[in-house]
Specification:
CATH architecture of the largest domain: Alpha-Beta Complex
Helix content: 25-40%
Shape: globular
Number of helices: 10
Order of helices and strands: HEEEHEHEEEHHHEHEHHEHEEE
CATH class of the largest domain: Alpha Beta
Strand order of the largest sheet: 8-10-7-11-9-12-13
Structural class: alpha+beta
Number of strands: 13
C-alpha cells in the first residue's frame, strides 16, 4: 500500500464523518472551516518519529494510530478546549506491509470517531523511516483559554490522574524479552495501555475550562518535573511537590517492586502521562469536587503548591531537592 492507496483508504474510512463548521472537506487543495461565533480557534501539531517516540517492534500499529491522534487532542484539552478537526501526514518507509498500514489507519480513524473529530486532509510521502505528523484544530469560548502563565503563590498543584504508568511500561518494553503480542494478556495491562494507547483528558479539560478559576494548565508529556517547570518559568513562581501526596497506581507499585525502581521518580520524571497538570486557588477545591461528581469524573489530586521563587522542588522526608526540568527527554 503506497501513497495514493494510503490516501484513498483513509479518506474512505473517514468520509462518513461531518461537522456543522466544515464547509469543505477532503478532496480539494484546502479544507474550508467556518468556526462558531464567539469562539477562539486552537491549533496544535505534533510529530512522532520512529526510534525517538515509538518502536514498531513493540508498539502495535492499531494502537500507534490511536496514540498519534490522542497526543494532539491532549494539547487541546490542556487549553480547556474541544478538538474538532485533524490533518494527518505520514512518511511511509518501504518495510511496512499493507496489513500494518491498514491496522494503523483503522486505529487512527477509530480514534477520530471516538473523539468526534473529523479528518479534513493531510499528506503522504515515501522515506526511510516512519514519521507521523498530526495537526488538530479545536475551539473554545472567547476569553476562556487556560494558558501556562498565570500560576500564583498559594495555588495548589493538581494532576488529573495517575502518573508514571507510561514510564514503567517503557522500561518494561525496553527490557530483554519485553516484546509482547497481546496487551490484554500481558501482566501489566494498565502500564501498557498508558504508554501504547493513552487517553486524552478531553472531558476533564472541558470541565476545567467551564469551571473557571484554573490559573495555569498544560498536559504532561515530559514528566511533572519538566512540565511544571514550564508553568513556573512563564508564571515567574516556584513549585513544591510533596512526595507523601503522590498516590501511585497499584500496578505501578507492583512493577517498581519487580524491577527495583523508585515509584516517586517515575511519577515525577517519567514522560507521556498525558494527564492534565494545573494550578488553582485552594478555595476552588469544593467547586471542583462538585463539578467532577456531577460529570462522573474522578477528582484531580493535589500534589503540591505554588510559592514565590524559582524552580520545582520535591519535598521528601523533610528535605527539599530541586527537580527543575529533570523530566523525560525524547532522543
Amino acid at each position: 500500500m503506497r501513497e495514493r492507496h494510503f490516501i484513498n483508504r483513509i479518506a474512505e474510512m473517514a468520509k462518513q464523518a461531518s461537522h456543522p463548521s466544515l464547509a469543505l472537506g477532503i478532496g480539494d487543495d484546502c479544507a474550508v472551516v467556518s468556526g462558531p461565533p464567539a469562539h477562539d480557534l486552537l491549533v496544535t501539531t505534533d510529530m512522532l518519529v520512529e526510534g525517538a517516540h515509538f518502536d514498531c517492534r513493540w508498539h502495535p500499529a492499531h494502537l500507534l494510530g490511536r496514540k498519534a491522534l490522542s497526543v494532539n487532542i491532549s494539547d487541546i484539552a490542556a487549553m480547556g478546549g474541544r478538538a474538532r478537526f485533524a490533518l494527518l501526514s505520514v512518511v511511509l518507509p518501504p518495510y511496512l506491509d499493507d496489513a500494518w498500514i491498514a491496522d494503523f489507519i483503522a486505529g487512527f480513524t477509530g480514534k477520530l470517531a471516538e473523539e468526534q473529530v473529523v479528518l479534513i486532509g493531510g499528506d503522504t510521502v515515501s522515506g526511510d523511516k516512519l514519521v507521523i505528523s498530526v495537526t488538530v484544530l479545536g475551539n473554545i469560548a472567547q476569553g476562556k483559554v487556560i494558558k501556562r502563565a498565570g500560576a500564583r503563590p498559594g495555588d495548589g498543584v493538581y494532576v488529573s490522574g495517575p502518573l508514571g504508568l507510561a514510564a514503567a511500561a517503557l522500561h518494561f518494553c525496553q527490557r530483554p524479552g519485553g516484546k509482547f503480542d497481546d496487551v490484554a494478556a500481558n501482566p501489566w495491562p494498565h502500564l501498557l495501555q498508558a504508554l501504547l494507547d493513552p487517553q486524552a483528558q478531553t472531558a476533564m479539560g472541558a470541565l476545567l475550562g467551564d469551571l473557571g478559576g484554573v490559573s495555569a494548565m498544560q498536559d504532561i508529556s515530559d514528566g511533572v518535573a519538566t512540565d511544571l517547570a514550564h508553568i513556573c518559568q512563564v508564571s515567574q513562581v516556584a513549585a513544591e511537590i510533596f512526595a507523601d501526596r503522590l498516590r501511585p497506581h497499584p500496578e505501578l507499585e507492583k512493577y517498581c517492586r519487580f524491577a527495583r525502581l523508585d515509584p516517586v521518580d517515575l511519577q515525577l520524571r517519567g514522560g507521556e502521562d498525558y494527564q492534565l497538570l494545573f494550578t488553582m486557588p485552594l478555595e476552588r477545591e469544593p467547586a471542583l469536587a462538585l463539578a467532577c461528581a456531577a460529570a462522573g469524573l474522578a477528582e484531580p489530586l493535589r500534589i503540591g503548591r505554588i510559592r514565590a521563587g524559582q524552580g520545582v522542588w520535591l519535598r521528601q522526608n523533610g528535605v527539599a531537592a530541586e527537580i527543575t526540568f529533570q523530566g523525560y527527554e525524547h532522543r
